[in-house]
Amino acid sequence: MAFDLPALPYSRDALAPHISEDTLNFHHGKHHQAYVTNLNKLIEGTDLENKSLEEIIKVAASDSSKAGLFNNAAQVWNHTFYWHSMKPGGGGKPSGAIAEKINADFGSYEKFAEEFKAAGGGQFGSGWAWLVLKDGKLAIRKTPNAETPLTEDGATPLLTMDVWEHAYYLDYQNSRPNYMTAFIDNLVNWDFANQNLADAS
């Protein structure tokens, strides 16, 4: 069963001016599509062909000979999760259960935003910043390349920010900090985080 490129949950111009249509044409239409295409080639004719994406990631993560498979499968999952982590008119302080958890576990929204941006800014080279639920508490993770909290026992991803250069270079050139500020202030989909928190509870 081949995987398909998941549709964006909004039009390609919906995140402008913070993320341009040009960026989404390349990032979703080219980069994400390439991971899907490569994944399908790698599982074709194998015993993984009818497994879920999450199952493939977990099998490949524990086998160093399957590094190429892991990278493509995890990047398909990470990118799909990232598109849903944003929405037009998003960002700023959350409401609902996630707001209460952020205040309880980080002390304030401002402290969370500071730590989240520090994770994204502190990831050398390509990677991701994550908000996860672990042992009933919110925590921040940074992962290099295609790595994902899905492989960490007991960690449930709630939200992610892509800090690979192709996520922001057309719009922000080499200024990852400006991209991260725009993500936090204008793009975060707190409804998605709230739903993930509810599903994990």
TrEMBL record:
InterPro entries hit by this protein: Mn/Fe_SOD, Mn/Fe_SOD_BS, Mn/Fe_SOD_C, Mn/Fe_SOD_N, Mn/Fe_SOD_N_sf, SOD_C_sf
Domain Manganese/iron superoxide dismutase N-terminal: 3-87
Domain Manganese/iron superoxide dismutase C-terminal: residue ranges: 94-196
EC number: 1.15.1.1
Domain of life: Bacteria
Catalytic activity: 2 superoxide + 2 H(+) = H2O2 + O2
One Pfam family from the record: Sod_Fe_C
Gene3D superfamilies: Fe,Mn superoxide dismutase (SOD) domain (1.10.287.990), Iron/manganese superoxide dismutase, C-terminal domain (3.55.40.20)
Keywords: Metal-binding, Oxidoreductase
Family affiliation: Belongs to the iron/manganese superoxide dismutase family.
Function of the protein: Destroys radicals which are normally produced within the cells and which are toxic to biological systems.
Protein name: Superoxide dismutase
Organism: Henriciella pelagia
